[in-house]
Amino acid sequence: MPSKDISQLQENEIISQASKALNSLDVPVGSLVVYSGSIIGEGYNTVKSDTNIAGHAEINAINDAVQKIGLNQFNELDRNKLILISTLEPCEMCKGAIIHYNIKHVYFMKDKSPLHWNKKQLKSLRYEWYKRKIDGEQLQDSLFLLHPEYPGKRE
To answer: For the whole model, what pTM was predicted?
Structure first.
């Protein structure tokens, strides 16, 4: 019986994606990007199989959607009709991608414990404590200005 929030097809597909991760000995997580009820992106964990630390199911599903329809078209989709579904609550990295690409609706089958999130908060505080700004701001600004699509570029 499918969850009340996803169709039987979507539930079957997300489990199929998670099974692919399990078969490659990755953490068995699958994810889908759905637009207006249609699957436009799918992914599963490929961290171990691809030796890629960003190979999380959610990132792979977003990448798949962008590759299929193009970045500009993806960015123009109606965000009220765009959903990310995962078998596991997204991690901080995946949450960052979800926020960056303005995916408002996120569903997951299994959540992470409060202890997990407390540990992540401590790591985030440690990051804030140890981060340092270095010289080179003008160099970065120059690189931005050289980019043909940079919004601050002067004609």
So the answer is: 0.85
